[in-house]
Amino acid sequence: MTTNADRNPQRVAIVTGGGSGIGRAVARELAAQGCHVMIVGRTEQTLAETAAGHDSIHPLAVDITAEEAPAVIVATALDRFGRIDILVNNAGIAEPCPLSELSGDSIDRQIAVNLRAPMLLTRQALDALADSRGVVVNVSSAGSLGRRGWPHFSAFGATKVGLDFLTRTWSVELAPLGIRVVAIAPGVIDRGPGGPMGADAEHYNRFLSDIAKRTPLGRVGKTAEIAWWVGELVKPEAAFATGTVLVVDGGLSVT
Fold first, then answer.
1. 12-191+222-248, what's its fold?
2. What is the pTM of this model?
3. CA spacing 20 to 30 A to 129: which of 50, 137, 151, 175?
4. Positions in the chain whose pLDDT score sits under 50
5. Whole-number pLDDT of residue 9
6. For the chain, domain boundaries
């Protein structure tokens, strides 16, 4: 006998970088939609903080750059839930510095997290995503779509341009499997105390204030605003959207 649960199974999402910032907000947004959400990150404490009070958010502490990580992540999700419907490639790092001081190790770290890990994890999840006719969401950056230079962000910006290319390419390559691929490109987002990479609070707040003055809407973004758009892009009603990179930056990129 077929039940309503069989016809409408609870969707399962994987969100990398789920311990803070945009990843935390996305995990909670998808949980509010009724998804089981497996959040992936390196730090057990921050993952637990994301999951606190949310029974449908499930932490998995793993370094996504480790060779075994894609297989562990996908196998864990399938063992726990039996399916994967949504993959949000959110984890990212930025190590800003002038080109004259940029090291090979810094370049390698940013490529490993921002570009290599999403490629290998998405590859590992393909069969499961094809079974569910699922969706991949890549979290890019509004700056990667513009014509402006990004002083001190050579490696980070290059990885985000690469992620946009992957979004467009995968959308064509994976469409015959029923898999949609989209990206969201946030502008400057207030990610909470300390900012990204443990930045000094005073300097980070000054940076946010400066960007707010240059943004047509007169402020920086909120993590919940990016999460809302991710939530919309993965809904069944968005089934005709693939290959697009949605900019959410308060108009900064068009000024």
1. Rossmann fold (3.40.50)
2. 0.93
3. 50
4. 1-7
5. 78
6. 12-191+222-248
